[in-house]
């Protein structure tokens, strides 16, 4: 029984060390998540810009058509709603885009630091050569 107690402690300590190490898989999953956030933000920003531009053109056409008739208020209201939807999409897309890009950059820097820390030996700085 006394022999199993030190063995149990060694197993527990080795599991704690492995659980606390920063794996590149964790960075890879976070990097994929942040790239997805950046892509969604870019798509929302572009779609919102196109929607805003389309609503602006429709609004302009409502008031600047060739006839002497009064402009259609329903069409002007719809064009206004389209512009508001475009602004809303851009308001959501721009922060997603910026936050995703910033987090991606920070994760890349942190992953490089972890890889650099792996080069350190017990006596000082180690050298690693790849071919």
> Rg to the nearest angstrom?
28 Å
| Strand percent estimate | under 5%
Mean pLDDT: 78
Distance between the termini: 50 Å
Q: Largest beta sheet, briefly?
A: 2 strands, antiparallel
Describe the structure.
The protein is rod-shaped and about 100 Å long. A hairpin with a 2-residue loop joins strand 1 (120-121) and strand 2 (124-125). Strands 1-2 form a two-stranded antiparallel sheet. Helix 2 (24-63) packs antiparallel against helix 3. It starts with a helix and ends in a 6-residue tail after the last strand. 9% of the residues are buried. It has a domain at 52-103. The protein contains three helices and two strands, in the order αααββ. The protein has helices spanning 4-20, 24-63, 73-117, and strands at residues 120-121, 124-125.
In brief, what are we looking at here?
The chain has helices spanning 4-20, 24-63, 73-117; strands at residues 120-121, 124-125.
Topology:
Layout lengths: L3 H17 L3 H40 L9 H45 L2 E2 L2 E2 L6
Antiparallel strand pairs: 1-2
Helix pairs in contact: 2-3
Core attributes:
131 residues, mainly alpha, two-stranded antiparallel sheet, 3 helices, 78% helix, 3% strand, rod-shaped
